[in-house]
Amino acid sequence: MSVIKVLEIMSDSPESWEDATAKGIKKASETVSNIKSANVQNQSVTVSGGTVDTYRVNLKVTFEVS
């Protein structure tokens, strides 16, 4: 039987939502092993001078507990 745990994280990037997601997963995997999936719960941006400054994502990351 597998036990799956869910971790909620926030990540950002000046490039894109995809980059913010990839950076969040990469950083989480430094301390969490057996990551199985991630679900983007929310996307947002910060704006400076009328242009997008930062892309932000809220992720629910699932990993298997051994």
UniProtKB/TrEMBL annotation:
Gene3D superfamilies: Flavin-binding protein dodecin. InterPro entries: Dodecin (IPR009923), Dodecin-like (IPR025543), Dodecin-like_sf (IPR036694). It holds the Pfam family Dodecin. PANTHER family: CALCIUM DODECIN. This is Dodecin domain-containing protein.
